[in-house]
Amino acid sequence: xxxxxxxxxxxxxxxxxxxxxxxxxxxxxxxxxxxxxxxxxxxxxxxxxxxxxxxxxxxxxxxxxxxxxxxxxxxxxxxxxxxxxxxxxxxxxxxxxxxxxxxxxxxxxxxxxx
Length: 114
Prior knowledge:
Elements: H1 7-20, H2 32-71, H3 76-85, H4 92-101, H5 103-113
Helix pairs in contact: 1-2, 2-4, 4-5
């Protein structure tokens, strides 16, 4: 019995990977084995860094809230503790935005919890 191959599917798989490798430098963009490894690694980094991005943003928000709270005589932990105990349901993202772009609104939040 002759050997059966599926060249159409194989070509489609390779085209898919090479399309993902578009814009890479050197042989990474057009040589199958190199491109496959480069795309695999890139997908791994993308997955990992979606998680890292969330951590980085949370850290940034905390830094901004801390800086704004200290202008009003509170540390970050004191401020967040009072926010929670007073039932203010603003998350860190919103509080950081208020601190940066709307200082009057942030001051109103501080006055409410004091």
